[in-house]
Amino acid sequence: MIIHLKESVSELKANELALSQQAVIFKQNQQFILVTSSKVKELDKAVEPFTDEFFVQTSDIQLASRDYQEDLREITLENGVKIGGSQEKTMMIAGPCSIESWDQIKQSAELLKKLNISTLRAGCYKPRTSPYTFQGLGFEGLKMLAKIREEYGFNIITEVKDSSHVNEVIEYADIVQIGAKAMYDQSILRKCGESNKPVLLKRGFGTKLQEFVQAAEFILSGGNDQVMLCERGIRTFETHTRFTLDLCGVSFLKEYTNLPVVVDPSHAMGYRYGIADLTRASLAMAVEGLLIETHPTPEIAKSDAAQQLNFEEFENMYQTLQPIANAIGKTLI
Ligand code: PEP
Ligand code: MN
Q1: How many domains does the chain have?
Q2: Nearest protein Cα to ligand 1, atom 4
C-alpha cells in the first residue's frame, strides 16, 4: 500500500508512523510517502487521521505501477532535456562499450555530433566476466568523459559496477547506468535512491520482469523518481545469438509500469549483423531510448568487440530510423 501523508504531518510524526507500519518512507513535493508491503490491503486506523490519500496495490510493483501513477514519468537531465512524460522523444544513447583512450572517445564524440545525437555512453568501470580482461580506465575514464561533456554538451552515461565508485559515477555522469550484473546490488540501488540523478537500470539476463521492476522500486522508494528501465536481452536455450531480446517484456513494461523504457539491442544480439534490424523493431515499439554500441575500430575494441558497429555501419543504420520515428510520432534526440 502506498500512503500519502498530509502535508501538515511533521517529519517526526511521519517517521513514527512509518515505524509503526513497517513502511519505507520518503519525501516528495512537501509530502511524506509511506510504502508498506503490497499484502497490506486496509489502512491502519492509527494512520488514517494523517492520511491524504492511499493506494492499495496488487503486487510489490508499487511506485512503478500504472495503477498508482498512470502517466509515464518524466526524466529531466542536467542540461534541461526531458524524456518520458508526454515528450514523445526517443533518446539515442551511443558510444563505445568502454572508454579506451582520449583519441577513441573523441572520435566517437565527433560521430555523435555529426548525427546530432544527444547522449554519449562509454563504460569506465567494466563488469567483465573474467578478471584477466580489460577492466576499464576507472576514474581516469570518468574525467575524460567529463571533459567531453564540457566540450560537446552531450549527456554522459556511464555504468556503476559496484558500490566502491558509486559516488564518483553519480557525481560525474548525467545518467548512471546500473548494469545487468549489478542490478541486484542493493547498496548501489539504495545509493542511487538517495540521489536525484537519472538512472538507467538494466535488466539482469536471468531476471524476471517482476524482479526487474522491484529492483527499480528500491530506487524509487529512496525518493529518486528519475528511473528508466533497459531491456538488454535475457538468457534462453538459444546459443546462436548472445542473448534473446525480450520485446514481449518491453510490452509488459510499457503496459504496466510508468517508467520510461530503453532497449539495448547491442548486448542482446552480441553480433554486429542483427543490430540494425533489432534497433528498428525496438524503435517501432515507441520506446523512450535506444542504446547502441559503436567504436571507431571494433576489431580491436577492448570489450564487446563482436557487437560494436563501426561508424559507417552505425551511420547507415541511423539513417533508416527517421522514417520509423516519423511514423510513430517520435523525435530522435
Ligand atoms: C554494457 O552496457 O557495456 C554492459 C556491460 O551491459 P550489460 O550490463 O547489459 O551486460
Ligand atoms: Mn558493452
Answers
A1: 2
A2: 179
Residue-number span of the structural domain to which 41 is assigned: 2-55
Q: Based on the fold, state whether residues 98 and 171 are members of the same structural domain.
A: yes
Q: Identify the DSSP state of 308.
A: P
Q: Are residues 297 and 220 in the same domain?
A: yes
pLDDT band of residue 217 (cuts 50, 70, 90) is very high
What integer pLDDT is reported at residue 57 of this predicted model? 97
What is residue 212's predicted lDDT score, i.e. its pLDDT? Answer: 98
| Lining residues, ligand 1, CB within 6 Å | 97, 123, 127, 179-181, 202, 232, 267
Determine how many CB atoms are found less than 10 A away from the CB of residue 248.
9
Q: Is residue 93 in some structural domain?
A: yes
- Cα of first residue to Cα of last residue in the chain, in angstroms, is 37
Q: Does 109 fall in a domain? A: yes
Q: Which of 232, 245, 246 to mutate to test the pocket of ligand 1 (most atoms within 8 A of CB)?
A: 232
Band of residue 252 on the pLDDT scale cut at 50, 70, 90: very high
Backbone φ and ψ of 89, nearest 5°: -115, 150
Which ligand has the minimum distance to the alpha carbon of residue 200?
A: 1
pLDDT at 288: 98
| Residue identifier of the C-alpha nearest atom 9 of ligand 1 | 180
DSSP calls for 38-98: TT--S--TTTGGGEEEEE--SSS--TTBTTT--SPPEEE-TTS-EEETT--EEEEEEE-SB
Question: 94-110, pLDDT tens digit by residue?
Answer: 999 999 999 999 999 99
Do 33 and 99 belong to one domain?
A: no
User: Grid coordinates in use for 13?
Assistant: 510524526
147-150-154-159 Cα dihedral, nearest 10 degrees: 40
pTM of the entire predicted model: 0.97
Smallest CA-to-CA distance from 118 within 143, 172, 82 is with 82
Q: Do 136 and 224 have their domain in common?
A: yes
Q: How far, in Å, from the CA of 307 to the mean position of ligand 2? A: 8
